[in-house]
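Q: Could you fold this chain for me?
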Amino acid sequence: MNILIMDWGAFGKESAIKAFEELGHKVFRFFHKDYLERRSDDFMNAFKSFITDNNIDFCFSFNFYPILAESCKENNLKYISFVYDSPHVNIFSYTVTYPTNYVFLFDSDLCTTFNNGGIKNIYYSPLAADIFTPQKLDPDSVWTKRLYAKVSFVGALYNEDHNFFERLKGISDYTKGYLDGIMKAQLKIYGYNFIEELLTKPIIDDLQKACPYTPSFDGAQTLEYVFANYFIDRKLTELERKDLLSAVAAKFPLNIYTLDIDATIPNAVNLGAVDYYKEMPYVFYNSKINLNISLRSITAGIPLRAMDIMAAGGFLLTNYQPDLLRHFVPGEDFVYFESKKDLLEKIDYYLKHEDERKAIARHGQETIAAHHTYKHRLKEILDFVFEN
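A: Sure. Below is the predicted structure, expressed as structure tokens.
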């Protein structure tokens, strides 16, 4: 089949193209400057010409784009979207209900929420990863040395000045106290996120006065969803990552790889961002312990970072995520922690038990290789779509 793939800078895009081609399909890259818009005649006209000229059989994108859904519906083409971001407000567009759509979400909780709301063309699927085969590196180069760690964390600290939560100026003392209380409670709980359901109307009204939010014309997202997921959960993740990483760095050598080179975790070494394809797999492979601390809006799903760590042959130590237990075995493929104390104890244990740590890392990679590569996942998706 001829496949149109939305050609934006998605993680995994090149891996998906390679997998589609290995499955016997031909991939055509399509990009238009208006792909983030909700309405664009220019996009739709360019799309129609492109699918006609290239005899396209269906469309694929990482994440969901309403303008692409609109274009596929108008041209009666199947549109497969594979969502790896959470939150992802685009899936609250009414265009998600079009019968030409097949939307695959990596978080089973969110999938269930949509299904319970009567939207049946949204399906659960875990993410995928490429198996990493390391190349021989020059051990004396500065570039190589930054890719080794005893304990490492790769990811954002959500400490930007433009963080949405910092825009909530002028809220009442009551609202400040209320948010502080529910955030402190949420930080003690893994595997269940209750922030959205605790945002009462008076709280939402106060937040909306401080930082007004207007949904797009085709959006069905609630203010509770927006403030919980884009404002509060990101702030929670910032607080949690700083707290846990500071505790780790106080006891163990810790390298962090993050976009903000000026971000400071006491006693940790900040080595800046790493390239997703060229450097990140080496960090995972060369670190004795790789930490995953999930974004709090991912309530059940397996973050892409966790999949990438295992695929690289790295040892994964992560917070608890329910979907991990659907596809992997704790203590065989990965290890999870349940508290700060548990995290520190497990780092200490696995640094001292190298054979056990390496066996878990090896088994995790073998499980990815057997069941969770892009070729596996995309074949499963295509089989499902074209059998239905």
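A (continued): The chain has two domains: 2-127+374-387, 142-371.
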